[in-house]
Design a protein that fits this description.
Length: about 160
């Protein structure tokens, strides 16, 4: 693999790692505390983190689309095209679910567009279920990228 293809793969790995890390932190550390959010504390505990994550991933993800396409192109004709396609499809699914379904809920919660704390909890529950999809897809995407790099570098053979 030449150095440009290596940099491309490492960029995708960086993005996939940030995505999966964010989803794992959400699921295992933040969800339990967010069950008790109320109108008076939702912005501090939900609004700020989701705004920051949106800013970050708005910069990182578009380049991942290009990077994923390069991965598929560079692995075409080899068995490694399978994890490359999983990577590209993964970032597509993550973006469709995030931008198409989750962001409108974020906007609603951050804007206080709910009648009471009960409706807020209902929105957060829907948000968490949708992010569970991203939890599993980001984990699969990350694992596919690691599989691709490990196979490309014959890393498993080095442990034999």
């Amino acid at each position: 693999m030449n150095w440009l293809l290596l940099l491309n793969a490492l960029y995708f790995l960086f993005g996939a790692t940030m995505y999966v890390g964010t989803m794992w932190v959400l699921k295992w550390f933040l969800y339990p505390t967010w069950r008790s959010l109320a109108r008076d504390n939702v912005d501090m505990h939900f609004g700020t983190p989701t705004r920051q994550a949106t800013k970050f991933f708005t910069l990182v993800v578009p380049v991942m689309f290009i990077s994923g396409g390069v991965l598929v192109w560079s692995e075409w004709g080899t068995v490694r095209v399978i994890p490359a396609v999983i990577c590209l499809l993964g970032i597509i699914v993550l973006t469709v679910v995030g931008q198409g379904i989750i962001i409108p809920i974020n906007v609603r919660i951050r804007g206080g567009d709910f009648k009471d704390d009960g409706e807020l909890r209902s929105l957060l529950q829907r948000w968490m279920v949708l992010n569970d999809i991203r939890f599993y897809v980001s984990t699969l995407t990350w694992a596919a990228m690691v599989w691709l790099l490990a196979d490309r570098g014959r890393l498993l053979e080095s442990f034999a």
